[in-house]
Structure formats: structure tokens, C-alpha cells
Amino acid sequence: MTIRVGMIGAGGIANDHCQAISKYEGAEVAAVADISAERRDALQAKFGIVKGYAKWEALVDDKDLDAVAIALPNALHAPVSMAALKAGKHVLLDKPFALSYAEAKTVVDTAKRKKKVLMLGMNQRYRQDAQVVKAIVERGELGEIYHAKAYWYRRMGSPKFGTWFVNKSMSGGGCMLDIGVHYLDLALHLMNNWEPVSVSGQVYGKFGHRGIGEGGWGKSDRSAKIKFDVEDFATALIKFKNQATLELNVSWVLHQEQGDRNNVELYGTDAGISLAPTKVFRQSTQQGEYEVVMPQDVKIPHRYQNRQANWLDAILGKDQPLCTTDEALVVQRILDAVYASSETGKEIRFTK
Q1: Which whole number is the average pLDDT over 24-50?
Q2: In degrees, to the nearest 5, what angle opens at C-alpha 325 toward C-alphas 320 and 327?
Q3: Rounded Cα gap, residues 158 and 270, in angstroms
Q4: Is residue 207 in a domain?
């Protein structure tokens, strides 16, 4: 069986999707949809994609397709996913899941009812160093994990001005939804803790509205009538049922020496661990001496191929999605709470 995939959206990230899918034996990108004929034609030419559509609705209605990969502005994630699932197609969706927990829950319920594979492509989980850390945690080497820190700090890394990324009506939020979501998900995955009870968060818009901090992704259009009204820094403290805590910080723009810093650090009763570089810290003697262990041969492969392969394997019944829909819903719920806490100035508590 060859899985025929439709690519919805032909922007930069679509190239990664198509390249990974084309390397999977038993799958092909058979169609692409994008409102831009230039982007659509370029993707078709690069990957030999036969069918091209100007509207995503036409691709979803294509009965020759088995599945779709969606790379669209965030505001379209839920409605396009819903339409594809209702049309009987499996779905791979770029983050974030949706603009709200309620939207995401509706999409998940539809996938379960239609018995289709719905996967949120949280690519950081597929890093080899993340898999090494996960294995160490699962062996119990850290003991009880009572605190974690996750951060992704960019110095000058805002998406281009005039693009949908910086407008709340299209993106739903700024750096937290763009890159913070990755390290939130990765930290929860490594902690194996999916029972948050409260979130305190604050988001800041300090640079973008002043035209400061533009990074290298995409094409800038400062003449576009698109308002920069999302955050460029966000911070949150998440508390869990077992009294563990997670500190999350993320920025597009920040006055710091390094251009880009990101990591997940886990603190346990027996040892601590850092993701990048991967190091285990533990007390080696009663006198308080410490040893640092660096797992050998930790390499980071092109993680998109692993993500796509996992999704396609799940469609064929060979594997389960590494990121489950229930876990994706927890991530979405926390994201919602960060913004709600910032807006109200109060801690957001989950009732169930």
C-alpha cells in the first residue's frame, strides 16, 4: 500500500514535510494546495507532485488522497483538520494544535469518532539527545523529578514583520505559541508528567511593536497592514498534582550575549540532567563531591524524518504516535492558561 499524502500549505516548512515523506518507502506526496501559484508550482516542481490546488478545500475533497499534512497559519489549524478528518483522511498537524483547548478537543473527538490518525508534529521529541534523556529518566536514574526548567531564548529572532506570525488574529499568540510550545511539550514528555493543576504566566510585548528584533525567517513586509500585536517574551510556572514544578521561559527578542539558547533541565532526588549538552549530575560521595556523566555518541539527526515516519507508521498500524492526542490537549490547556493568567493577573487552576 502506498499512502498518498496531500500537502496543505507550500511555505518553507512544507519543504521539510515533503522531503521527509518522499524518503519513506510506501508513501508519496500526491497533491499540494496553496493560494500562491508561485509557491505551489515551486513545490510541485521540486518534488514531482502531480496535483496542485489553489484552495485547500479542493485538496481535502480529493478522494485519491489518504492523508494530509497541514502547514498553515495557526488560525486555520482546527478548521482544516476538522474538514480533513470528516473527509476520511489522516492528519499530521504542525503546532500549535489550535487557538484554544475547546477547538483542539473538538478536533480530537472528531479523529476518534472517524478512527483516523491525528498527530501533532512535536519534532523536538525525535531528537536523539531527547531520546537518550528519556531513557535515563525511564530507568529511574534521577529518582523523583520535583522540578524542571525549560527555555528557548532568541536574541534577535522575531518572525518577519508583516507576516501572519506577528498578528494575533492569525497566529493566536507570539513566541509562546511559536517556539515555547516545543519546549513545553518536550519538558512534559521528559518528566512524564501530564497532570498540571495550576499555571501562573506573564507575556510581554516589548520590541516588535517598535520594529525591533526581526530575525532571518521569511520575507519582511513592513508596509503590510498587519499589526504586530503578540508577545516577544513569555514566562510561566506550572505546578503538578504530585507537587512537581516546571519553569518555562521563551523569547523572540532578548538582550543577551548569545544569539540562541535553549535547554531542558530536570532535577531529581538522585540526580539531575541537562538536555543540551547531555550531562547527568549526581553526588558521588557523602562529602558532597559531584560527578558529571556525558553519554557518548549523542548525535541529533534530521528530526523531521523521524516525525513523518512515526506518523506514517501509525497510519499503517506499525507504531503508535509518539505524541498522543491526549498529551497534545494537555499542552494546549497549559498554553491557554499562560495567556489567561497574564491577562487576569491570577493563577489559573484546573478543576479536573
Answers
A1: 98
A2: 100
A3: 39
A4: yes
